[in-house]
């Protein structure tokens, strides 16, 4: 509302200024102080019309744009949550593939589109060589350090993704994404320490509740009545927890390097992921090529969603602080449970129990 009143005041001020200046132009010929020529008056009148009116219009346009910009980061983060929940669903559908093989194909969605995007920015965009300004030349130590952080973020994100894929082999989408949803807590704490962003008492209390929630997902014997932990659930929880910790550091680094062009960040993410997973896939003999139109369709969709999701989260970090973006990212839990119920027909424990009992 204050911004609206400010815009209206600007417009009124412009109109009043026009009236006052126009009144001053109607001069008495007998007035000895009236010595403006016609050309001067005309040019002055044009100047008056242009400057205040333009300022008022610019303020109005700025007000309209600010409403979208204010929530741009949150909307992009929400989009990335939707996309990454869909990628988790596709991973579940690709049951015959090893997590490393899935990750290898997924990283092509970040690498391949990033190359023509950078070429377009270099030769057909106004940015030109400015795309590399923050990371090149390496003779500038600041650029070298920024490139190192871009590479670090790629390594963290790549291995976080691998742990996420492995966790889906041992637990449901809903449980894996629920553990991953504790990422905002650790992002907020890291952003407070390294980026000097705000972190209140609510965040600290929420972190304690989050840790309790993660402990419940591991299904300890005191809650299930079993004699010992379910090893499959315990392994899946440990993998999901590792994924969450790496993702938290990755989010913090990504926020710090937000001034690097998103095409460079996406390219490095795809390049590192491709190299690492090729080495692992052939070393462990787990590489698998898609066979049949259906599998190629699933792999292609996974790659495309990866590219869109990466661009969305990178741009979200440019527009908003790390803490709020990480909080919005927890919506992938809701999306994940929806896909789990509707498409995989897998219900959370309590729902499944009640349905079987009825």
Automatic annotation (TrEMBL):
The chain crosses the membrane at residues 71-91, 103-123, 144-166, 172-194, 201-222, 234-257, 264-284, 296-315, 327-347. Keywords: Membrane, Transmembrane, Transmembrane helix. It is found in: Membrane. The keyword Oxidoreductase does not apply. Residues 72-218, 235-351 form the EamA domain. The keyword Repressor does not apply. InterPro entries: EamA_dom (IPR000620), EmrE-like (IPR037185). It comes from the Eukaryota. Residues 25-48 are annotated as: Disordered. It is a multi-pass membrane protein. SUPFAM superfamilies: Multidrug resistance efflux transporter EmrE. This is EamA domain-containing protein. It comes from Orchesella dallaii.
